[in-house]
Records
---
Amino acid sequence: METDTRESAVNELMSTKAARTKDIALAMVLIGVGLYGGITVLSTKATGFVDEQTMDHTTLPSIWGFLLAGLTALWLVQLIVELRAVNTSLSALGHTANVFSVERMFPELSTTLIGRMIAAVLSIIVYAVMFEELPFFVITGVFLFVMLLVFGRPLHWKTAGLAAIGCAVFHVMFVTFLNLPL
Amino acid sequence: MIEGLIGGFGYLADPTNLLLILAGTALGILVGALPGLSSPMAITVLLPLTYPFDPIPALVLLMGVYVGTKLGGSFSAILLRTPGTPAAACTALDGFPMAEQGKAAEALGYATVGSTIGGLISWCIAVTSIPLLAAVAIEAKNADIALIGILGLVLVSAFARGSMLKGLIGVMLGLLIATVGLDPIDATDRFTFGIPQMMEGIPFTAALIGFFGIAVVLSDLQLVGRKSELIADKVSLTLPGLKELKQRWQAIVTGGTYGVFIGAVPGVGAESATWLAYATAKNRSKTPENFGKGEPDGILTPEACNNATTGGTMIPMLTLGLPGDGSTAVMLGALVLHGIEPGVLLMSQSGDLVYAILASLLVATVFMFMLALGAIKYFVLVLRQDRSFLFPFVLVLASVGAYAISNTLFPVLVAISLGIIGYVMETRRFPLVTVVLGIILGPIIEYNARVAMVIAGNDWMVFLGTWPRIILVALTVLLVVREIQKSLQQQKQRREEIMSTASYD
């Protein structure tokens, strides 16, 4: 019974540690973006003959950049304090397991899910590139069919039929009715 | 005001506009019913459909979607115990137990009637208050507009999901993204990296599609393959009688009032308003013990509140250019897309549009009632479907929407990049609405602040020059200080909780 409770406490702490570790990584990136924005904009020269202004083209972007970095730094401090508390608690429970495993860091991500995400992103790019190469009707039908397969629909005539109906509806809506230049 | 309103209804007499509201409302109910799909997402992916439209047909279509999603969320809350939208979570508390008792038709009836009356209450308040507030707001000068924008962003951060610190970080990121391109006063290029398309800035429609379209699909991909079982095999709708409604009027009015007034606070939206209204209705009830077990007031109150926020959120949006929630943030973007600058001058410059939006709010509420009454069995059909059918179609809308901005690949790449950033931020529980608002309000704040400084001869004191400005600055500072203090206290509490986990025994 006690072992179960201890196990559950350790699991909870490890989940928190994994979550805070990911937060810290994001915070570092945001601080970098803020500092980069705030510093680089200060070095941009005004184009043309612009009067001297107290609030010029650099003022607000640099304020936003430095505030982004500053506020994220405050969040980072909170995250580090929380992470230290987690580590102390884990030590008190006599646990030294490494948090840096894929299962622990990204429990929600499976190979299928990652594959679907990558396929979705790449397919959108290919779909948009093909707008200029192939007729909208054709490329949309292919895109829908591929996406339906990627998202788990079986390779079946019903899937192809759904894609065909879908692209016909989109064609009527965008090209015939709305006259978008696709 | 009456003349303006008659003019607004006049626009809706056009059959095309009426059909657009009807289609938008039907689509809104469908989207709202599907857990995982949100109103901002539906409005965002519909934006490309409105490109060739005039502003009025475009906005009335989006209003239909906005109103429809509010009711749709309750269908899945009642039939699946999974709210279609966060604001409908409260409805599940009594709606699902009532459905379990074999009264799903009655529960859906209470939700529909509550939503409709809540919507009507909020429409009456919005229609009377917006012209009055707009008359005051029109006096605002550039410095006031900039300060109102900043206060709005702080308010949104304070009330958005998660901590205010995360909200503020999101806002700053959005404001920084908004500075990409030529600056609004002397056309100096900033953060363009030598890419010509970046000169015009980040296309905000692409940003909306990225944050509310692609990011949401990426987040919800884990729902693919999951099918839901409804609590009732055959779904119908039974409306409560007039006599019963008379007995329960307090519950509806409580929900409606909370919805309008909390919805009118920028950034709060329906999510928190429904819980507050529910708690009040429960406390005031003679039978509080029935709440949570299928009490009709427990459905009427949150649903009246949920739909009443539609009128409430219109108040800051149409008078100050500040969104009440994520959906109205996208609608602000839609206004900009159609060449209309949201803000204090909206009523004076585009009064006909404002009244048409208000008229469409009423018409959409009536359509929502009629559609639910006549076609509920068709709407709930979508609840049985898994998302693999839906996401490919959403991705087509998102891709076409981004591509059609300039008929180039650039906005598609922007939408994908921001979609990935949005997905990462969403998984770390950042309120994406704050980033979007930063992007929308950033240029308005910068332009007005710089013009105010130029007019005042480069004197920073222009931002403290009048009592309203002092109040705006004081409110902003107080809110930030209070929320950061609260955040530090929560942090301390969280640390103590973690430490106590170690002493579990």
Note: Chain A is about 75% helix and 0% strand.
---
Amino acid sequence: MTYGTGDYRYELVEGWPTLPEGCASLIDVGGVAVDANDNVYVLNRSDYPIIVFDREGTPVRHWGEGFFKRAHGSFISRDGSIYCTDDGSHIVARFDPGGNPLLVLGTRDKPSDTGYTRTWEVYQSVSTIKHAGPPFNRPTGVVVNDRGDIFVSDGYGNCRVHHFTSDGTLIKSWGEPGGWPGQFKLPHDIALDSKARLLVADRENSRIQVFDQDGTFIEQWYDVIRPTGIRVDADGVVYVSEFSLRVSIFSPEGQLLSRITNHSANRDEATFLAPHTVGVDSHGDIYVGEVSKTYAGTDKGARTVQKFRRL
Amino acid sequence: MRFHVAGIELELVEDWAKLPDGWTFRDVCGIATDEADNVYVLNRSEHPVVVLDREGHVVGSWEHGFFSRAHGARRARDGSLFCTDDVSNVVAKFTLGGELLMQIGEKGESSDTGYQAAWDLWQGVGSITHGGPPFNRPTGITEGMDGDIYVSDGYGNARIHRFDSQGHLKYSWGEPGGRPGEFRLPHDIALDSMDRLLVADRENSRIQVFDIDGNYLEQWNDVVRPTGISFDANNNVFVSELAMRVSVFSPDGGLLGRWGNTTADRESALFHAPHAIAIDSRGDIYVGDVAYTHAKVDRGANTIRKFHRLT
């Protein structure tokens, strides 16, 4: 069974990955990021928050135990640092590849004031945001440019993108609640494209917003439904995971190239229950992580992250 | 419980609907009122329309099995009642007593749009590849000044259809997507005081405004998952939203106010899934929840809420 169309077709790699001893399930996978050597860093909500797998799915090491309240998003920078967001404790952290914390942005357990009230229902919660606030209120995604500057999408309880220097000094923030260009309803991930533009997964507006690094709105891409995660490969191709239970693949200009979808309308046969993040390695293989436990009430065990080999 | 909204004061009428023992609404999907301020509650129980007087006493009910899944209702200019049924793919006009006057569409036949019904709403919406003819799970209905009939279509389509008063299709507009004139789940349609059509574009979280020929005029972005549209005597626009609230707009789309759940507590919540709204001649407001379908709770008689207008 193959997935996708055209030049971007894939097959699911059965049995990938193998979990480390003692880890029964990944529970939810918040972020998947691939380093320069094609090691796959899986940020998840088990007791083993970061598990590093090689291409074959063998666990190499794990770290981050006790650090996260609710791991959400991740990015690996040019120097091999791993940046992770924790929307449960309102922080963003930088780690070296071995898991030593190098920098923490935000104050643990201290959300900013935006009027946000968390309720049992995500749309009701999003609707309580009255105004934008400073960093952070449940930050979601992070990306780092070549200078080491850090951009954070923020988040479930805010409606902003924040720009920090590499040492964590806030330079600028932009965004307000709403649906117009430059406004957000749950900015859920952020990426840099091949033209050094910022792509923001504006989840509950069902669009990708494109900005320059100063926060000037450039354009928006509409052919997504509830985008959750964004990655850009070495060719500038853009991979988007979506809560419409698919992964869409776009050209650098935003033209749809391929789409990986559930083959069946039956839940029992679903490939995806809640795609939340996508990673891509140097071979063009992609890794899709899901928050299937939180979102769909199903524990998919090791298969909470799935590898698709490019054909 | 009182709410001060848009310069008016509303009081929740506790336990307004007085249903006979053993009855429930399950879901209240559509609401309409007549000249005597009787309330016609389209619902998903064995009594598809329950008629209540303004004190909430049952004064009648329809007992036929016309509906597979009732969805939307609106009064016609001649005093009869339009209803949609999204599962059997028809819209119909009834006398207030429930006698069928006219039907558009054939039960059980759905148009080709690429739509594949799935267990997940967004997977289903994401499967729509193109707009199609009437119908694929139609949702809302309204009537023009000239008697033409407009239908929003729907869960499995991305179009508005215009029919003449006899039910003959004149033309349709809309394609799947997020640009102006495109739809993701057009969920209700209403004719405003300026002879414009307001469409609740639910999963794009906006109201799109068209002239009666289908020309796009503008959009209102300050809503989250709008479901139903109604007007008061001042032509202000009341929008029910799945974000657990009702928003009130001036005729030109300026936000006047909103009300909804006041706490994060699920048990005591005012709303569980607002889906329909109607306003009677005195300005009293009725809001119906699809609490059973959307939130898996049967709120019995409180599936509809009455707000008495004090000022």
Note: The domain at 2-309 of chain B is CATH 2.120.10.30 (Neuraminidase).
---
Amino acid sequence: MNRLRVVSIAVLLTLLCAGFCMAEEKMIQIKGSDTLINMVQKLAEVYMAKNPGANISVTGGGSGTGIAAVVNNKCDIANSSRSIKASEVEQANNKGIDPKRIVVAIDGLSIIVNAANPIDKLTMDQIGKIYRGEVKNWNELGGADSPLNLYGRQSNSGTYDFMKEVVMKGEYSSSLKSMNGNAQIVEAIRQDVSGIGYVGVGYVKDAIGIKVLNVAVNPSMGYFSPLNEMDVKNGNYPVTRPLNQYMNGVPKGAARDFIIFELSKEGQEIVEKEGFFAIPTEYQRYNNDALGIKWDVGESPVVKYSAQGRDGA
Amino acid sequence: MGKHNNLSVKENFIHGLFFLNGLLVVVLLVGIFALLVAKSVPAFKDISISEFLFSAKWNPTATFVPPSYGIKSMLVSTLFVSIGALIIAIPLGIGASAYLSDVAGRRTREIVKPVIEILAGIPSVVIGFLGIVLVGPMIARIFHIPNGLNALNGSILLAVMALPTIISMSEDALNSVPKSFEEASLALGATKWQTLVRVKIPAALSGIIAASMLGMGRAIGETMTVLMATGCAIAMPTSFLQSVQTMTSTIAIELGEVPYDTTHYYALFGIGLVLFIITFVVNMIADIALHRYQRVVK
């Protein structure tokens, strides 16, 4: 009787341990961009519902924080709305980390104003001037006579860097109000008649009280909206960017399985339901190379830019 | 004899243990200070101390212009927010403590005091949340400004956070004013109000000052609340209705992603050192005030 009990306890413990070890293996930690967080969270939920053993945690903190976590080997996947910087690659290599990039979605970074603002389009040049602090009143842009209130993100945000490097090509005005995330910018603009902000397109789809501006590089070529999928995918909308995930080396095991789910037809449908855009063919090829696999890329619109395109790592 | 020996060994052991515990606090304090100094000194190889303290330009991640490391606007922002908090919290705190010590009945006091203590336990992130959804929109409506995330918002929230400290310490100070002072004043024909304002509060003043200083120490070091509620604009503040970024916010935002062992990294420790020195001085003042008050009472 006693021996039976001992044996059964031993068996139970072994099973428990095995269970934990297996669960351990399936645990995936994802960290980083606040622009990607809701979308990746949704992807993780659907994936976990389909794979009962899987355990994925998705947290924010900003692209910089996510990449730093991968560099320091503190998480499996970093969400990032910007490309990794040369200095970060160097840091990673010094620590024996080999950062690999996957593109999970396309974002049309949306420039938003209050719904009551008469302005409905801006050029890239004007947006740059606004955020560099060279234009201080809406009437300089043909709007009402009211001071411009700048809303942006904190410096650990990938979107903050993307705006600075790609759109503004200069430094932010010191009167920029740094918000914690996309949702806070949307909320601030909803209340502020004279505010302007930038958020991922996934955050404007169902928002009320705000207006998404059309943007042009050159006014004679026309203004385009980030809400129009074709214009974002073919690069007509000028503030288009890939949303990335970085990891150490070619992903293996559970992380690889999850990434393949993200890139699958079902995963990409979730991406679109969350308001972002599915990855076009160029990036699908890029991802295949990064993962070292081949699969059917399906039909995708022809794109004007290459995977290394305007954000070139 | 044996038993006595045993007892003294035990006593010595406990004595030593408590001595070590006391020492640990000192070691921690000195250790933190040493770490801050060691980590911030390298920053001053690239930045002059006068630029660091007196320039209002902070942009360490600049890529199109040379990076700049001036903390003046953050220093002023921190002072704006915490002095604003004191202006709100001190009158309220003294009023509440006078009410509790002199006016309120026993039962009221028994309900109110624990409630104030609960207030002290609310996590700062929750207070910051209130700042975004409640105080911010209220300020915007009252002052007809487009956005309520500004220094005033931070001051109000920090006042709420400093109040429990100020109230309970001031109440202690008022309660320890000798009963004879009060009786003498009343016997001379002063009203209860006159006794409170002209006798008890002046007698307890250094205790109240100490309470306020400790409240201020808390306000200066508070991070999450101000990070959420003050709008975080790095420009030099000129009014309470402007968005500001305090020293604590800057460290919280930037330390997470700064590459280690760079000037930016060391400069953040430099901000920490300045913050440490300020809170140290404020707490010193509180301590000195407290000692004076204890002498007066004795």
Note: The CA atoms of residues 2 and 8 of chain B lie 10 Å apart.
